[in-house]
Amino acid sequence: MFGTKESSNISGYHDKNPIYIDEEILQEAVLEQSLTDEAERIAKTEGILFNEARRLSLEYSNIQKIDHLWQFSALTKLNMNNNFIKKIEGLDHLVHLTWLNLSFNNIKKIEGLNCLQKLEVLNLSNNRISRLENMDNLMELTIFCIANNKINQLNNVVYLRKFKKLFTLNIDGNPIPEENNEEKYTLFLAAYFQQLKFLNNIFVNEDIRNRASAKYNLDIEEMNQGELQAQQAAEEKQRREAVLQMHDDAFVEQLNGDYLYNNILQNDTELSKLRYLPGVDELLEEFEKKLVEMCNQLFDVGLVEFKRRDAEVKLFFSRLSTDVGDSQARGSKVLADFQLEHKKRIVDLQEALEDEKKTKMDICLREIDILCYKLMEVEFQLYSYLEETIKKFDNNITEMTGSFSETAQGIFVHCRELEDSHHQKVTKIAVTTLEVVAKGEAEDDLPDDVRMLFLDKNTVMDTLAASHDNHLQTINDRETQMVTRIEAWKLALIKGIEDTELKRNRMRIADIHRYADYLRKQLNELMQEGI
User: Fold this and answer.
1) 508 occurs within a structural domain
2) How far apart are CA 9 and CA 15, in angstroms?
3) pTM of the full predicted structure?
4) Residue (of 415, 471, 474, 464) closest to 275 by Cα position
């Protein structure tokens, strides 16, 4: 895989016109590379299941663009070397890929690899890449070949230090200036990649490591310190994000503090005038204190309820996995017992006299029907059991979310009562201010626009009502958002479980019928061949 002397014009394949990947190309590749004779016969009659293929090789195929691979969701190894590919793309669905070879193409930029988080081996040699980048998610990378490209800065190679599992690196054949000084080049890389075992196909021995450490010791210590600080900052950021995500999953995001109070103030365009009234700021402080207490109470309840729901969900999926596994084990036992006896029956059929063959053939066919019935029975028992289990889980989650919604709505009722009380107190101050302004006894520091406002009682009352309505609307909106999200989460969870189970059940039934049909076809072929 990591040879660097191979010519991109081997066998003259580049003399052919470039092509695009289509269904026919993929079918031929899967049949040629991944399936046994038995599986090939089934595939040709039943259709090729791309989502079951583990390996796919499309080298020397004159392919110009990576495309049509979204169905290969189970793929672990993909070989597309020696083609005309210019861009890394179309790989987002290959989340199980561990081995990728795109060497000997025309790729200029590393990109399109973000979803390949399980990738262990990556070969991009003999392309036109000038920079190492966009590989941040490849933390499982152990072998990387970027030989014979256009990388011209040795410092850019330091980007790969983040891959702590990387033990084989080949960057030979790149126009890096330090490459002219082989010792500096080797020692630099050996120092900065202390976990490397092989560099440019050469074993990094103890002598190289000692000389590298002596030469770059101070630089490495400084870099290690910087990386440690960056790692600590990243971990702290990740921790904060995890906490915020938990708050979001608990439906109580931004309820642990004065967020709701600040939203109320932001949405109240009339408040700025009312705050000039004597005593209103003190009332607002009191209102904020009590509202924050209620929000914190709801926040704490939300976290407790989230932990209850989370425990229930995890327990359900654990039991689901166990139940499916037990059923699969029972089915495997039925199948193993059948296969043992079926082999004996096939031998008997092959050795039978001509007038006995039909009787023995009928026995074989009947046993296949019995096998199909037994496997269906196992699957039906599982499906019925899981149907009841999902129903109980649905009831439990509904009770939990319903209880939490009721508690939350009760607290929001108290929030509205608090706002009503606050509104009444502010109204009382406003009425007093109306009387004072009417008598001409208002304080001199009262702004002119506020003084003018309090010359008209109807305008003051309208302003107070608008302020009150804005406060209530903000509280109502937060309540509606919470209750709606809780219900939507529950519905999506249950529907997802039901859809997944239905899909599993249909696939299992299809597998049983497909296997039974294959056995019958095998028997018919034996009979046609005269056994």
Assistant:
1) yes
2) 8
3) 0.67
4) 464
